[in-house]
Design goal:
mainly alpha, elongated
Length: 156
């Protein structure tokens, strides 16, 4: 209220509203933050997530793509763009995003898990296992990676 053109505060408030499910307030704050800072990768990312959560996949894709174009080393945006591509059944693009995220941030566990899920969707268990084994090489303590690999490995 004291600084209505403070983009960071609007972005943070919009994200709080998004997490609370107050969609009208979230969209208003995030759109306003983006209007103030159109080249802010965080604002584009947050608005992309907002639209993805509301199943508005086309605008979600546009904002996530812009976030990645503004900050190519943005692991969360790359990963969530991959998830969006999976939802749109654009599997080659999804794989590309997950692999880009892994290249940029090898310790980002979620991209390995999402890549493995993608391969399971495509009925390629061997590739899924390889993705999980790659995760466990980087993060041997990954409980989620171990559990997913155990589910894919038949017990003799």
């Amino acid at each position: 209220q004291q600084r209505p053109s403070y983009a960071i505060a609007l972005l943070n408030l919009g994200n709080v509203y998004r997490r609370q499910g107050a969609n009208d307030k979230a969209e208003q704050c995030l759109t306003q933050a983006l209007a103030l800072e159109p080249d802010d990768p965080e604002a584009n990312y947050s608005l992309g997530l907002f639209y993805a959560q509301g199943d508005r996949l086309q605008p979600a894709q546009e904002y996530l793509l812009k976030a990645v174009s503004l900050r190519p080393d943005y692991p969360e945006a790359l990963n969530n763009l991959g998830v969006l591509f999976v939802r749109r059944q654009q599997y080659a693009q999804a794989e590309e995003q997950f692999r880009a995220c892994i290249r940029i941030e090898p310790g980002f566990e979620q991209s390995y898990l999402n890549l493995a899920r993608l391969f399971v969707l495509q009925r390629d268990r061997e590739k899924a296992k390889l993705a999980l084994e790659d995760l466990l090489r980087v993060q041997p303590q990954s409980a989620a990676g171990r559990q997913a690999l155990d589910l894919l490995t038949p017990v003799p």
